Each structure stands twice: as structure tokens, then as C-alpha cells.
Amino acid sequence: MATNRTFTMIKPDAFEAGNSGAILKMIEEAGFKIVAMKATQLTPQLAGKFYEVHKERPFYADLCTYMSSGPIVAVILEKDNAVEDFRTLIGATNPANAADGTIRKIFAKSIEANAVHGSDSDENASIEGAFFFSMAERVA
Ligand code: CMP
Q1: Coil, strand or helix: which one is 55?
Q2: Enclosing domain of residue 74
Q3: In the structure, what pLDDT confidence band is assigned to residue 134 with cuts at 50, 70 and 90?
Q4: pLDDT tens per residue across span 49-64
Q5: Can you give the CATH number for the domain in which 14 is found?
């Protein structure tokens, strides 16, 4: 059953380039509501924990270094069919393969520095949101 929340991070490349506002504008114009949001910076250890599912992948170490290299914006979003609709809005992981008009096509620099993260399932959306936000930090 589809739930109505997903989780995103605006990654260090997009934050550093000053694209956080433009990306959030696209997200809101696509009908997503912001449930919780904060700017923060991950340590390499926290990035490793967040991406633990990828720990056997060859890009894991570089990904943890990259994701802790500068500030990010963590956001919980709400919309009907949130996980699937958000993945459509952001486009393919590799911006070279992302559809025109998607956030990654417009803002991503590379497959690693790909502007935004989007949860890949309802279960992971819940886990990832809880990684950054307590219940008291969210809109009810
Ligand atoms: P994200 O959607 O946040 O999930 C895992 C991240 O790993 C992905 O975006 C990219 O930033 C990164 N990633 C995935 N595949 C590769 C790859 N082949 N090479 C480098 N980084 C990758």
C-alpha cells in the first residue's frame, strides 16, 4: 500500500551551488508539502550509517566522503503516492539518463553529485525520515 510521505536530501553539490531554493520551489510546485526540514552537515560516520545499504558497493567510501563534504538540506515531504511521484520528479540516478525537466537533469553534476536523494520505498522513507527528525520536529 502506498503511503503519502517520502524523504529527500538536497546534496552538497546543489547546496553549495545555491540551488536549494530553486529545487524546493520545483518540489512544492509539483504538489509536495514540507512536513519537516533542516539544513545540517553529516559526519562521514553518519553518512555511512545513512547509506549502509550500499556498504558493499564500490562507490560507498567515496559516497560517504562526498555526502559529508558540505551542508545538506533534509526534508520530509507529503503527497499522495509520494515515493513514486518524487522519484519521477527527480529523474534517474545518473543525470545523463535523467528525463528532461527532472531535478537531476537540471541540477545534478554527476552520478555521485546528483543534487538530491529520494527514498526508494515507503519503508525506507520512514526509516530515513526518522534518521533526521524526531516526532516533535515534524508537522503533525
Ligand atoms: P541516491 O539516490 O542518494 O542513492 C545512493 C547514491 O549513491 C546515489 O544517489 C548516488 O549519489 C550514489 N551512486 C549510485 N550509483 C553510483 C555509482 N555507480 N557511482 C557513484 N555513485 C553512485
Answers
A1: coil
A2: 5-137
A3: very high
A4: 999 999 999 999 999 9
A5: 3.30.70.141
